[in-house]
């Protein structure tokens, strides 16, 4: 939870103070939009009172929304979303290439965008410069950290790089972010993230292991999939399969056109089998992220205290529409 949201919740707790100190005359004159201050009787229990205050606060923002301009509306909706839903939705390391199948006729470069975001809800987070960013192709790794430039994704700090493809191959891009401190979960998050692009007709090497601390090793090609195809991968941690690993799946809602019928359907959670193998059929075309989550067997220090580390092995796969003449 951000400091901003904490400040808002503090403000919620301060609301009764304002309510009890506003004189009666002023209350009558107040009318809308501040009528919310006087509407609720005092709730019996503290818990109920806080809940009511939260609701009141939401009403306050909705009333403000009518008054204020668009910029404030966006903020307002975000705050309401956070207050109502909690901060439970899934964040994903994201490495999104501009193209996953570079053909002879295409331009010979791939633009990569790196971020740490909530891909379905299109809520961004600031990402520090990654610790590692590279590509593996034709059995060799290349360090691309120096190519990263600052950019914005979903209005937050993110990174981008332009990679020139010089020869045919399957290019596996990978990123290890700087540990992200998540106060809401009282832990650090590290999402080792990869995306694969093939260039100029090569179709081998997509199943090679990168040798990351944790990774999803694809069992189906991580490019050239049709919407509806089943994607399979093995979840590995320190090189070993992880039985029954939990895998969160989310659609990159880039144009914000998709809507989930319920909050349960924003992130789809599946589990790997006893051999660490998971399967998922993407229902629509687009980029889909798979994040296998495990706890690290080490801690990292935050303000002098040892904190747990959530490890994510993330792979992004593009699924395509069925073609027609
Ligand atoms: Cu998050």
Would you write up a description of this structure?
The chain is an alpha+beta fold and 325 residues long. The chain has 2 domains: 3-85, no CATH class; 92-320, Immunoglobulins (Immunoglobulin-like). The protein is 21% helix and 40% strand. The strands form 3 sheets. Strands 2, 5, 6, 9, 10, 11, 13, 16, 17, 19, 20 and 21 form a 12-stranded mixed β-sheet that branches. Helix 1 (3-21) crosses helix 4 and helix 4 (46-67) packs antiparallel against helix 5. The structure holds copper (II) ion (CU). Copper (II) ion is lined by residues 91, 118.
Write the layout of secondary structure elements.
Layout: H1 3-21, H2 24-30, H3 36-39, H4 46-67, H5 70-85, E1 92-97, E2 101-102, E3 109-118, E4 123-125, E5 132-137, E6 140-143, E7 149-153, E8 156-164, E9 169-176, E10 180-182, E11 187-199, E12 214-218, E13 225-226, E14 230-237, E15 240-241, E16 246-251, E17 268-271, E18 277-281, E19 286-295, E20 300-302, E21 305-320
Parallel strand pairs: 2-11, 11-21, 13-21
Antiparallel strand pairs: 1-3, 3-4, 3-8, 5-6, 5-9, 7-8, 9-11, 10-11, 12-14, 14-15, 14-18, 16-17, 16-19, 19-21, 20-21
The structure holds copper (II) ion.
